[in-house]
Predict the 3D structure of the following.
Amino acid sequence: MEVRNVLATKYHFKRSRIEKVENTVRTYADPVSHSSILIQEADAIQEETYVTAMDAIMLAGASHIDGTLVTFDTELHRHGAKPPEAVLE
């Protein structure tokens, strides 16, 4: 949902391009369950950083699996996320 929202509202991508990005993400990323522990971690992140709730959940999810959050969102880059081009290198 977040990828779709950011690409549509911030970057004004056309639906067909958004769908291609979504398909790529779904091919290479595994879903993360929103357990109560993950939500508690997200709450702690949000309390410290004041990012949005959805951003905190994504940061917590990446941390929970010892992964890297890859996003176009430059605000999240300040909190440890990486831009797509950084992981393609």
